[in-house]
From TrEMBL:
Catalytic activity reported: Thiol-dependent hydrolysis of ester, thioester, amide, peptide and isopeptide bonds formed by the C-terminal Gly of ubiquitin (a 76-residue protein attached to proteins as an intracellular targeting signal)
The enzyme's E.C. designation: 3.4.19.12
Active-site residues annotated for this sequence: C328 (nucleophile), H754 (proton acceptor)
Species, as recorded: Brassicogethes aeneus (Rape pollen beetle)
Family indicated by similarity: Belongs to the peptidase C19 family.
UniProt key word Protein biosynthesis: no
UniProt entry tagged with the keyword Hydrolase: yes
GO biological process assignments: protein deubiquitination; proteolysis
InterPro entries named in the record: Papain-like_cys_pep_sf, Peptidase_C19_UCH, Ub_carboxyl-term_hydrolase, UBA, UBA-like_sf, Ubiquitinyl_hydrolase, UBP13_Znf-UBP_var, USP_CS
PANTHER family membership: UBIQUITIN CARBOXYL-TERMINAL HYDROLASE, UBIQUITIN CARBOXYL-TERMINAL HYDROLASE 14
Molecular function, one GO term: zinc ion binding
Entry protein name: Ubiquitin carboxyl-terminal hydrolase
Keywords from the named record: Hydrolase, Metal-binding, Protease, Repeat, Thiol protease, Ubl conjugation pathway, Zinc, Zinc-finger
Length: 792
C-alpha cells in the first residue's frame, strides 16, 4: 500500500459528468477479453491496452490503474439434432451476416479486477479493504458508471424503437375515426376484397381490413390496402398480428410513405373495440418479413458464397469487423478504403505519429480513431487462428470499432443511428470528414477525386459552353433495355406469373436475371442529352441544346456505383436484381473529354442578367410537401417545362439518385465561368472571414457554402497565398484500370439487408463478411453495387 501513497493526490472519483472508457482501449482494440486486459486510469479514466499504458504513464505521470480482465467460457448446450431450421429472430442488429438465430453459441463470463501501479505493474487484488478510501471509491465508481461507449450508443438510439428510428406520424394526433359501428373481432380476420388471411392491415380511420403489398417472391397480399388509400386518402393503417400488449405495432402512413409511430395507437384501436390487454403478437413484423425475404433470395447465397465451406484466412490485412447494429455498410466501406495505399500510408504506417500528436481526448479525435482502425485492420494483431482443437470454421473475433462509429456518426441524422445505410452516401460522408480533418497534411481521399466535363452546344448558333465539376464516385444508370437475355427473362417472368396464379411461387433457384454488359452502362452515361430550355447567350433566349458528359481527369482509384436503388411507379423503393458483366481490366480512355476544340466557338459571356425562369408555384409546393428537397423540385418543374405535377413527379422518380439533385439549382446556360453568389459570400464573412477568403473558397467548391467552409479550414496556406484563386487539385493519368474490390448488397432496400465486400489481396480474392474473413472461391463480380478500380 505504501506504493500508492505518492499518487493519491492525482486520483479522482468519476461522476456522471465524466466519460469512463472501460470497454476498449482508446488507441487500440484491446479490451477486457484481450489476453492482457484493459487498464483504466484512476486519474482521467482512459482505457488503455498493455501496449499503450506504459506510454501513457511516461507522458502523463498517471500511475494508478484499474485492470479489467474478463474470461470467456462457452456454455455447453444440448445437441440440436435434425430439428427445424435455425430461426431468424425479429431484430438482426449488431450480429454477423445481418441475422441472429436461437442456436447461437452461449458463453459465461468471469470478471477479474486488480489495482495496478506503474511502472512496476504491481498488482493489488480488488476488492481490498486495506486500499486507501480514495482508491476504493474511484475504482468502484469506474465499475458502477456506464461506459462512454454505452452512453454514446444510448444517445444515438434516443427516440428509436428496436434500433429503427420511426418518426411520429403527423396524422396521429388528430386522426379522424368514423363512427360507423364497425367492431374488430379478436381473430378470424380476412381481407374484405379477397380471401387473404395474412398480411392484413386495419385502416385506423374507417376500420376496413385489407391485404398489403405483394412481395417480390409472390407472397404477401394483393395490394388492396394501398388501393383503398388511393381511393379514400385515409392515411394510417396498423398491421394486424403485430400488435403487442405494450401498445406497439407496425403502423404505416401511406401519405408519408414510411413506417411511423402512433402515440395514440391504444386509443385508436379501442375505437374499434380492440383491447390491448388481450393482444398477442402472432404475425411477422415488416422487418421480420424483410429479413425472411432476404434469406430466400438467391443473391444472398451468391454474395456470401454460402454454397460451400470457405477457408478462413488470418494475419495482417485479414482482420474482420464486428457488426455493431446494422454497421455492415461501415465495415464494408472501411475494409475497402484501407485497400488503398494512401490510407495505409497515412493511418497505418504513420499511426504512431498521430497518436503522439493527440493533445486531447483520443476517443474524440477523428485522426486518432482512423489510425486506430488502420492498425486494427492491417497489423494482424486481432486476426489470429483459433486455438488448437477449435472447429475449423471458428471465427476470429476481429475488431469492434465502436469509438470510430460514434465519432463519424456524431451529429448526423442517419449515421448516428443503428439503421442500415447506403454505402455510397457513407463513402461521401467519410470523404467529407477526411477533407475537414486532414488539413494540409495530405488527404488520402483525393485519390478518388476526378473532374467531369459537361459540353453544351446551342441548337441555334452551334456555339458551345464547357463546364467542369468535381466528383468522387462515378455513378452509372443501369439501362434495363440493354439486357442481352431478354427472351430468357421474358420466359421466366411468364413461368413466374403462372406459378403465382396457381399459388405455388417459383423457388429462388430458378431465377433468371437480366444480363447487361458494363459498357452499356457507360454508353448511358455518355449518350447525348437534349436540353429543351437552354438559355443561349448568343441569341439571348431559350433554345434546345445538346449536352454531352465526359471525364476531364482520371483518378488514381475510381469508385463506380451501379445505381440499383430506385422508386417504382407506386413510390415503393426497389432494387434492380440484375447481373452486370464487370471486367477485371477496364479501359475508360474513350470517356476522356477534350475541352474546347479548334473548330468550336464559345458562347459569349452575357452582359445582362438572364431572365428568371417562371415556375409553377403550386406544383413546387405540392412536391415539397411530398418531402422532396426544394432544389430538386425546382429542377423537376424546370426540366418538365411547367407541364404539371405528374410529369414533375415522374422526373423526380427518375433522377432522385442524381448526385447533384439537392444542390442549388442554376438553369442551364446561365452559369458563369466562376460564379460567386453574394449571399454565400455574406454568410461566410459573417463567420469571421474576409470577403477575399470567402470568394476564393466558393470558387474552389462550386459555390457550395458547406464545402467552402470545409475548404477554408483544410487550406489555410492557400488562403494566405497571393495570386489567382486556388482550384481543386486532381490527379490525372491513363484511363486503364484493374478491379481490386467490390461491395455487394443483399436485400430489397438500401435501408434493410446486408453488405459484404470482396477484395483482391496478394493475388487472390478474399470475402469480408463482418468478422468472417475467408478465401473467396466464386467472387460474385456481376452482382456488386460499388466497385473499386486501381489504375494500371
Amino acid at each position: 500500500m505504501e506504493l500508492l501513497q505518492p499518487h493519491l493526490g492525482n486520483i479522482r472519483i468519476p461522476t456522471q459528468n465524466n466519460k469512463v472508457y472501460k470497454d476498449e482501449c482508446v488507441y487500440s482494440f484491446d479490451n477486457p477479453e484481450t489476453e492482457t486486459g484493459l487498464y483504466v486510469s484512476l486519474t482521467n479514466f482512459m482505457g488503455l491496452g498493455k501496449d499503450f499504458v506504459e506510454k501513457h504513464f511516461h507522458k502523463t505521470g498517471q500511475a494508478v490503474y484499474l485492470h479489467l480482465r474478463r474470461l470467456k467460457e462457452e456454455v455447453s448446450s444440448p445437441p440440436q439434432g435434425d430439428g427445424p431450421e435455425k430461426k431468424i429472430t425479429r431484430l438482426a442488429i449488431g450480429v454477423e451476416g445481418g441475422f441472429t438465430d436461437e442456436t447461437a453459441k452461449k458463453f459465461k463470463y468471469t470478471d477479474i479486477y486488480n489495482v495496478v501501479v506503474l511502472p512496476s505493474f504491481t498488482n493489488i487484488l480488488w476488492p481490498n479493504a486495506d486500499l486507501p478510501e480514495i482508491v476504493r471509491q474511484s475504482a468502484q465508481a469506474i465499475l458502477d458508471l456506464p461506459s462512454a461507449s454505452k452512453l454514446a450508443e444510448l444517445e444515438a438510439l434516443s427516440g428509436t424503437w428496436d434500433g429503427e428510428t420511426r418518426a411520429v406520424s403527423k396524422h396521429a394526433k388528430n386522426l379522424p375515426q368514423l363512427d360507423n359501428g364497425v367492431k374488430i373481432p379478436p381473430s378470424g380476420w380476412k381481407c374484405e376484397k379477397c380471401d387473404k388471411t395474412e398480411n392484413l392491415w386495419l385502416n385506423l380511420t374507417d376500420g376496413s381490413i385489407l391485404c398489403g403489398r405483394k412481395f417480390f417472391d409472390g407472397s404477401g397480399g394483393n395490394n388492396h390496402a394501398i388501393e383503398h388509400y388511393a381511393a379514400t386518402k385515409r392515411p394510417l393503417a396498423v398491421k394486424l398480428g403485430t400488435i403487442t400488449k405494450e401498445g406497439k405495432g407496425d403502423v404505416f402512413s401511406y401519405e408519408e410513405d414510411e413506417m411511423v409511430e402512433d402515440p395514440q395507437l391504444v386509443q385508436h384501436l379501442a375505437h374499434w373495440g380492440i383491447s390491448m390487454r388481450n393482444m398477442e403478437k402472432t404475425e411477422k413484423s415488416m422487418l421480420e418479413l424483410e429479413l425472411e425475404l432476404n434469406r430466400k433470395s438467391s443473391e444472398w447465397a451468391a454474395m456470401q458464397e454460402s454454397g460451400g465451406a470457405l477457408k478462413p484466412i488470418y494475419g495482417p490485412g485479414y482482420t474482420g469487423m464486428v457488426n455493431m447494429g446494422n454497421s455492415c455498410y461501415l465495415n464494408s466501406v472501411m475494409q475497402m478504403v484501407f485497400r488503398v495505399p494512401g490510407f495505409v500510408d497515412k493511418y497505418y504506417h504513420c499511426c504512431e505519429a498521430i497518436f503522439n500528436e493527440c493533445g486531447g481526448d483520443p476517443a474524440e479525435d477523428f485522426n486518432v480513431q482512423m489510425a486506430k482502425l488502420g492498425f486494427g485492420l492491417l497489423s494482424g494483431k486481432y486476426s489470429v487462428p483459433p486455438p488448437s482443437g477449435s472447429p475449423v470454421d471458428e471465427d476470429s473475433p476481429g475488431i469492434c470499432p465502436q469509438m470510430f462509429k460514434t465519432i463519424i456518426g456524431r451529429g448526423h441524422p442517419e449515421f448516428s443511428t443503428k439503421k442500415q445505410q447506403d454505402v455510397q452516401e457513407f463513402i461521401l460522408h467519410l470523404l467529407t470528414l477526411l477533407e475537414r480533418n486532414t488539413l494540409n497534411k495530405g488527404n488520402p481521399g483525393d485519390c478518388f477525386k476526378f473532374k467531369v466535363e459537361e459540353r453544351y452546344q446551342c441548337g441555334s448558333s452551334k456555339k458551345v459552353k464547357y463546364l467542369e465539376r468535381s466528383e468522387l464516385i462515378l455513378s452509372l444508370m443501369i439501362p434495363m433495355q440493354a439486357a442481352v437475355n431478354k427472351e430468357e427473362v421474358a420466359a421466366y417472368e411468364a413461368r413466374k406469373a403462372e406459378a403465382e396464379a396457381g399459388g405455388k411461387p417459383l423457388g429462388s433457384d430458378s431465377l433468371v436475371r437480366p444480363k447487361i454488359k458494363f459498357f452499356s452502362c457507360i454508353e448511358s452515361f455518355t449518350d447525348p442529352e437534349i436540353i429543351s430550355n437552354f438559355y443561349s447567350t448568343a441569341i439571348e433566349k431559350n433554345v434546345s441544346a445538346k449536352k454531352t458528359t465526359r471525364l476531364a481527369t482520371f483518378p488514381d482509384f475510381i469508385l463506380i456505383q451501379l445505381k440499383k436503388f430506385m422508386l417504382r411507379e407506386d413510390w415503393v423503393p426497389i432494387k434492380l436484381d440484375v447481373s452486370i458483366e464487370m471486367p477485371d481490366v477496364l479501359d475508360l480512355t474513350s470517356l476522356r473529354g477534350g475541352g474546347l476544340q479548334p473548330e468550336e466557338e464559345l458562347l459569349p459571356e452575357s452582359e445582362t442578367s438572364p431572365p428568371v425562369p417562371a415556375m409553377d408555384e403550386a406544383v413546387l409546393n405540392q412536391l415539397t410537401d411530398m418531402g422532396f428537397p426544394a432544389e430538386a423540385c425546382k429542377r423537376a418543374v424546370f426540366f418538365t417545362q411547367n407541364t404539371g405535377l405528374e410529369n414533375a413527379t415522374q422526373w423526380l422518380m427518375e433522377h432522385i439518385t442524381d448526385a447533384n439533385i439537392a444542390d442549388p439549382f442554376v438553369p442551364p446556360g446561365t452559369e458563369r465561368a466562376l460564379p460567386v453568389d453574394q449571399d454565400s459570400v455574406d454568410t461566410i464573412v459573417a463567420m469571421g472571414f474576409t470577403p477575399e477568403q470567402a470568394v476564393k473558397a466558393l470558387k474552389a467548391t462550386d459555390n457550395n457554402v458547406e464545402r467552402a467552409m470545409d475548404w477554408i479550414f483544410s487550406h489555410p496556406d492557400d488562403l494566405e497565398a497571393p495570386g489567382s484563386p486556388a482550384q481543386p487539385e486532381f490527379n490525372d493519368g491513363d484511363g486503364k484500370y484493374k478491379l481490386i474490390g467490390f461491395i455487394s448488397h443483399m436485400g430489397t432496400s438500401s435501408m434493410v439487408g446486408h453488405y459484404v465486400v470482396h477484395l483482391l489481396k496478394d493475388g487472390q480474392w478474399v470475402i469480408f463478411n463482418d468478422s468472417k474473413v475467408a478465401i473467396s472461391e466464386n467472387p460474385p463480380k456481376d452482382l456488386g453495387y460499388m466497385y473499386l478500380y486501381e489504375r494500371l
